[in-house]
Each structure stands twice: as C-alpha cells, then as structure tokens.
Amino acid sequence: MSEIDLEIYQEFKKYGRFLREHGLISSHGGNISLKRGNNIYIKRTGAMLGDLKPNDIVKTNLYKEDSKILLASKELPVHRNILLNTGALAVIHAHPPYSIILSFLYDEIIPIDLEGSYIAKKIPVIQLEVATASDESATKVPRVLQDYKVMIIRGHGTFAHGSSLEEAYMWTTVAESVCHLVYLAKKIGIDVEKEGLRNW
C-alpha cells in the first residue's frame, strides 16, 4: 500500500466508523468516495463501511469505465457524476433515520434551530422511481447538489459532498441534526410550519 493509499484508507476507515457509531448507516449500508487526480476511490460493493479493510477500497478511473467497476459499489455512477459536476472532492452517502423519515413528509426540510438555520437554509428532498443505483439517481442527484451541499432521496438517504470527507461528513450530520430536531418538535406538538419558527 503506497503512502497516499494508506492516507486514503485511514480517511475511509475513520469516517466509515463515524457513520456507523453515530447510527447514520446500517452495518453494510452507505458509501464513501474520494477524487484524486483522474481516479475515484470508493467502497467495494458489499463491504462493511464501519469496519473497512484495505482491500475494501476500490480505485477506478473517474472519467471512463475499467475492469475495477465490477468490484466497486453499485452507487459508483452517482458518486462519479457528483464529483464531475459539482467540483467536490469527496462524497458521503448515508441512511440517517430522521432524515429518511422526514423525507416522507416534506419536499424540503427547513431548519427550526439557530445552528441549523445558520448553516443550511433548507435541505431538498427528491422523489425517484428507482432510488438505489439507478440511471435516474446518477442524473438527478448531481443536478441538485450543484446548488446544495446535502440532499435527501425520499425513503433512501442523504448524499453530501465537499472538499474533504470531513466536510461531507459534517453536512451529513447537519442534515440529520436538523431533521431530528424537526421530528422532536412535531412530536411534542410544535407547529414547525409556523412562519415564526423559520425566522428567529
């Protein structure tokens, strides 16, 4: 394993563990990718994201298909298109429970807390006919992420991007924190649609 490969592995392992420890993925769910030059590094299909081994990371060409795509996550096309169309260097796809449950209620999530409102004015939610590993997701998700750092596919999960895995992870946690607070507010009877709660 070269020095840069070791660095990438450590980054993947760190944020994969964070995602699992904080309940943002199931044992084998979710995906991480990084752009390095003309290559994309992504989780191997079927790998346990919370406990990655060095051979669980697949290096393949960012611009064209090669034999390595057979090993890569089935979500490779959407990750590739996000990296190519947003200027991002890192992407995290997660399955945060509060983000998913609120996606059934809203077409966009408006933060009701001060921190959430400061960081994210809204989090878009999109409906897809085929949400997982589809041509539709590879087309529509990158289009939304040209204007937002994080979004939610209804019933499926979040996609977040940034200049690093740390930034993509931050946006993933922002989305889940915002959704968790909206959920709790609704549970105790606060009218989260009330305009006053959107403008502190």
Describe this structure in words.
By secondary structure, this protein is of the alpha+beta class. It has a single domain (3-198), classed as L-fuculose-1-phosphate Aldolase (3-Layer(aba) Sandwich). Helix content is 38%, strand content 18%. The protein contains six helices and eight strands; from the N terminus they run αβββαβαβαβαββα. The protein has helices at 3-21, 76-86, 97-103, 114-119, 135-144, 165-187, and strands at residues 31-36, 39-43, 57-61, 90-94, 108-109, 123-126, 150-153, 157-162. A hairpin with a 2-residue loop joins β1 and β2. α3 (97-103) packs across α6. The chain is globular and about 55 Å long. The chain starts with a helix and ends in a 13-residue tail after the last helix. The model has no long low-confidence stretch (mean pLDDT 91).
Mean pLDDT: 91
Number of helices: 6
Taken as a percent bin, the fraction of beta residues is 15-25%
Poorly predicted sequence stretches spanning 5 or more consecutive residues? none
Number of domains: 1
| Radius of gyration, in angstroms, nearest whole number | 17 Å
Class inferred from helices and paired strands: alpha+beta
State the total count of DSSP E strands. 8
The appropriate CATH architecture is 3-Layer(aba) Sandwich
Fraction of residues in helices? 25-40%
